[in-house]
Amino acid sequence: MKFTVNRTNFIKSLTDVQRAISAKTTIPILTGLKLTLSEKGLTLTGSNADISIETFISADDDGAELQIERPGKIVLPARFFSEIIKKLPESVLTINVTDNYQTEITSGQASFTIKGLDADNYPHLPEIDEAQQLSLTSDILKQIISQTVIAVSNQESRPILTGIHLVIKNNSLMAVATDSHRLSQRKLTIDSAQDNAYDIIIPGKSLNELAKMLPDDASDVELRISENQILFVFGNTSFYSRLLEGNYPDTERLIPQTSETTIEFNAVEFLSSIERASLLSHESHNNIVKLSLEVSEQKATIYSNSPEIGNVEESLKFQNLTGNSLEISFNPDYMKDALRSFGQTTVTVSFTKPLRPFTLVPSEDHEHFIQLITPVRTF
Fold this sequence. Notes:
Elements: E1 2-6, H1 7-18, E2 32-37, E3 41-47, E4 51-58, E5 67-70, E6 72-77, H2 78-87, E7 92-97, E8 102-107, E9 110-115, E10 133-137, H3 138-148, E11 163-169, E12 172-178, E13 182-189, E14 198-203, H4 204-213, E15 220-225, E16 229-234, E17 237-242, E18 261-266, H5 267-281, E19 289-294, E20 299-306, E21 310-315, E22 320-323, E23 326-330, H6 332-340, E24 346-351, E25 358-362, E26 369-373
Helix pairs in contact: 1-2, 3-4, 5-6
Keywords: Cytoplasm, DNA replication, DNA-binding, DNA-directed DNA polymerase, Nucleotidyltransferase, Transferase
InterPro entries: DNA_clamp_sf, DNA_polIII_beta, DNA_polIII_beta_C, DNA_polIII_beta_cen, DNA_polIII_beta_N
Protein name: Beta sliding clamp
């Protein structure tokens, strides 16, 4: 196997594939990067058994400057190989695999020789039926992930909650995540679902890595779903993730259908106030801020205190306050995550009781996006 390639172009593909490679794995060969060279181009593959990423550099891509001399395949130690490539002196590099998997990497006057592994021992990627597929635009998929992954649980004691629940049916998609303290749910209408219906749970860690790779434009991303795997295809990249097994909790019943107090905030202004209040709450052992709503006086106030340092009190700007007066305490970090997911919009916050979960929705669109936060008992 021997080829020459543009170093900058190669590093971009290498960086994407490395997201799937872990230094800690029970299968030693998965700490390596698989390179497969054919007459059509170069395929880079990385996997950690949970996610697998494959990207293709075409021989027809002028920017890649890929010159194929001898097709073949090899697995190279990923971390070490990557460090070498990033530090090579010239804009192009040559990789030449000789007998016994000895791999020579040259660029200008620099030359490295490292030992590779037999690519035939590398696990095969899952095969997913192309007939079962739908598509979303990259920017929408990225938005869905960022709005829901914040509520994914980090506790491995309940593995099912470490994923995002995706339900696709009747040309609609619902993504929901909860860690039992908060919940985030996003719905949208899609045309590409056809008659396919899916109910799957995708690990939050997988989607976090996917979001970092997706382009910001409105290019298409194909989703192909099998019994225990999902494949995302965009550009020259294929991103595989295993699915979580089990039944996701019924989250619809957690969302209050009525409210006794509602208030509208500008999301950015409210976020700034919460950030100021959390400066002190983070110094306290319980990390709580309190929101007081006085309907008769049309007044909203936020409080936080730390016995060791002091306290903060701030009157809040708001657009509309109706219902019953209320005092409620909550974790400010949950509120900050929720508010950031709304961007530059007006948010309606709806409360039922001081110890019941409350919801945040965009004032312009109550139906398609909702954040729920469970308050904190302070007595």
